[in-house]
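Form P-L/3: holo structure prediction, ligand heme C.
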Amino acid sequence: MTRLVALLLLSLLVACAEKDDSVEATPEAVPEPVAASEPAIDPVTGFKMTGDWELVRGNCTACHSAKLITQQRGTSEQWLAMIRWMQKKQNLWQFDPGTEGRIIAYLAENYPPDAARRRAPIPPDLMPPNPYSSSN
Ligand code: HEC
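OUTPUT (holo model):
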């Protein structure tokens, strides 16, 4: 009887050890490879390190964080409008047309308009009562 119990315990131990081995070897444990087409991200600015990114870093991060740029999206026209606004209101310097074209091409290519990035507004009936409402 004691021998049988000992044998059972032993086989249980062996089974556990085998199980541990198999967990380590599961393919899920291997990290997903990053898509080869995605450019690397500069750890300092967060810019996609492709094309004229260093020109953009050199001209666009003197006054504010690069985050202000990487969180923004736009067409060439929209990026140009932002640059014109900064030149008019925020003391941004003038660019020669070649430099400006390259900056805008980088921005429009890497930070183009995309699908809705904000959550949908909360429906009015789910909102708490507004204590400052003028209609009551
Ligand atoms: C001379 C200083 C200066 C430089 C250089 C500069 N900016 Fe700005 N930018 C500003 C200021 C000031 C603001 C407003 C910041 C704020 O609202 O807090 C701003 C705001 C922005 C915004 C936010 C606009 C919005 O609607 O919220 C973006 C995007 C931006 N800049 C992109 C750029 C890009 C791209 C470049 C390079 C071509 C650049 N900036 C270079 C001064 C500058």
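COMMENT: Residues 59-60, 62-64, 68-69, 72, 82-83, 86, 90-92, 103, 107 surround heme C (CB under 6 Å).
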